[in-house]
Amino acid sequence: MSACGGESGIKIFKMNALWGVMNMNQINKKRFLFRLLITSIMVVTSAGLVWGMGSRVPAVGTAAQDFHLPDLTGKEQSLIQYRGKVVLVNVCATWCKPCTTEMPAMQTIYDKLREKRFVVLAINELENEAKVREHIKQHGHTFPVLMDRDNKVANQFGVFGLPVSVFIDDKGVVREYIKGGLLSEQVILDTVARIQKPEAVKPASLQ
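RE: above sequence
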C-alpha cells in the first residue's frame, strides 16, 4: 500500500470518527432536551395538583359540584347530603396561619347556628391525617373535617393559595366565594343571614 493511500485511509478514519462523535453529541443533546421537557411537564403538573390551577373559580349563582371525602373517622361525607342547609366550605391546612386564625370564629358560629340549618365543612388539603386530628383535638373544633388527600376538591373549587371559603345555600348554589383569611364571626353571621333571608314576594298587582 502506498504512503499516499495510507494517509488517505487515516484521514477517512479520522473523519468517520469525528462524524461519529458529532452524531453522539447530537443524540445526547436530544436526549437531554427530551428529559428536560419531561421534567418541566412533571413540575407544571405537580404545581397544578398542589395549587388547584386546573379549574376555574365557581361563579356565584351557579350550582356547586358535589364531592365525596372521608372525615377524620373514616366515614365518607358528601356535599349533597347537606342539601337544605347553608354550607360553609373552608379549604384549609394546619400549617396555614390565616386558616388556623379563622377556625375559632368558624367554631363559634357553628355552635351558634348548627341547629338553624348551617354547617361548616373544613376541607383539609394534602396533610397527614394524624397531624390534622391532633390539631383539631388540641383546639377543640367539632365541625366536620374532611380529608382532600389528592387535592381533587381544592382543585374543583379553583383554589390557588389558602384559605378559601365558599358559602353554598340550601339549594346547593354558590352564594359567596372568599379568598384569604377574612372570616370573622361577624362576617360569617352576616353572610349566613343574607343567604337565609327569604326574598321579598312582590304583590300580584306589581308583578
